[in-house]
Amino acid sequence: MDNQTRQNNSPAKAGAKVWIPVGIAVVAILVGVLVFTTVRATRQAEASRNELEQVLLDNAQQMLQNEYADLNEEFEQFENSRKFITDDSVKRALSDKYEAARVQVEKLQQELKDQKRKSSAEIAKLRGEIETLRALLRHYVEEIDRLNKENEALRTENKEVKEQNRRLSTQVTETAKKNEVLSERMTLAERLNVTGLTLTPLNKKNKVEKKIAKAVQLRATFTIPQNNSTPVGEKTIYMRIISPSGQLLGSAGTFSFEGGNVEYTARKMIEYAGEEIGGINIYYDVNTPLIAGEYTVELFADNFRLISRHFTLQ
Q1: Terminus of the chain with fewer CB atoms < 10 Å: N or C?
Q2: In this predicted model, what pLDDT tens digit does every residue of 283-294 receive, in sequence order?
């Protein structure tokens, strides 16, 4: 019984021993397939992440390039305002800094363009350089605005100064005119006054002659009133008599008047003490026949024309 039983169980045990290695092999294969699949999926996921990261970095680079282009365009617009601040040292320093930063940005852009793979660190560095450009541009604009305001203030101040100078010049001119008038008035006030001027023909008996053709002398008679403004002292009064034909009677000499020399008919010296002098006579001895008509008598003294009167003699 026992032997038979052992004989019957032996084939079963042998079959079981055969299936164990097969099962292990199958499990190993399954594990290997699982591991391969997992590794492959992991690599594919990593490749997808890298590809996505590169796309994002490319987009970030493109956005930064657009920002850089916008900044350059703004900078060029404000460069048109250089004429207002050409000599400003602050402006020149800002321009130099902006140019240096722009060169650095263009260098980084070219490096990124030449690389097949970008890194976030390089993109961050480019972003930092562009932020530097943006800050410099803001400062640049602020300086232009400040200097333009200063220039406007200076222009306004210059305009006010010109207006003040114009008003001052007008005041000086008006004052000079007033002083000139006052000086002229003062000068005129010093002039001798003449009143009661007459011209009388005289005959040989020193009597009044009614017929001018028979006159041997002409007598001019006048009065010099009191004038406290006239300097006292010896005065020379020059007389000119103009005939109806326009000729000067006589030729006793010349005297200075307004920068020239003027001929006169006769003259008289008087001593003026500031008091009225009446009955002053100046005579002209007739040496050519006189005709009837209008005669003009002029008196001069101290470079002034004292009086000019017309007389009709028959």
Answers
A1: N
A2: 999 998 999 999
